[in-house]
Amino acid sequence: MRARAPAAQVVRHRTLRRRAFRRRALWTCGELLVTLGTVLALLVVHQLWWTNRQAEQGARQEVRALEREWGSSAGGSDPADDTDGTDGTDGTDATSAAGASGSGGSGGSSDSSGGAGTGSTRRTNSGSDQPSWSQAYAILTIPRLDLRVPVAEGVSKPDVLNKGYVGHYPGTQQPGQAGNFALAGHRNTHGEPFRYINRLRRGDAVQVETADAVYTYTVDRTLPQTSAHDDGAIRAVPRSTVRPAYGYRTPGYYLTLTTCTPEYTSRYRLVVWGKLASMRLR
User: Fold this and answer.
1) How many domains does the chain have?
2) What is the pLDDT of residues 57-66, one digit of tens each?
3) Residue 68: active-site member
4) Would residue 249 show up in a list of annotated catalytic residues for this protein?
5) Which domain holds residue 84?
């Protein structure tokens, strides 16, 4: 018998159109995913690289501007050259020196006078003057971290922290004053000046330079993690309200450094405390 030829397959136009639509839909979705991935990658590069580069450059320029204004040499002074015989163990040995310096202001409150710029318009913590809001007025140097950044009044993200500066908490004391000189800084992005403060160890030097004096603090204690709302850490006598085992019970001359933790989050705070060891008038 003669074999039958296979029947020709009939493809309807509706089926062809459906297949073409599916191919176009898949192609469009693929293009959208590639575009979205590219945009996300660019955002990550912007946050993790460009903001750091921009902020670090601006912070370095501000440090140089302060140095020129004060007539100091670049790079600051060696912490070892600032010691004056105090042992820095409890923050009280520097009391008489800090009190006699006349360089403490009235505390960096939120009603600080406005103004910006350099030269005659820049205000410092000298005498009764208060730092201008969001204006850099001091330089923070941490040799162990190879860090040297400006300190500005306030902790506003757009006006202070995102510039790569370290911000002074309004209402806390100024450098060298009795009480707590409390600072905040980014741990990631925007210069990330406090990226590695978890590496600080007891006895490490931290310098704060102003127009009038250079104050040397020594790291004393670290609170690895606490609530973002733990305001006890920046009180005049710093003591965590969340973890009361961390902190102090007696008045002194304290320095507080705060930043976010874990890295790339802002859920908790990492706190490093130090005590005033010595000061040197300019």
Assistant:
1) 1
2) 999 999 999 9
3) no
4) no
5) 49-281
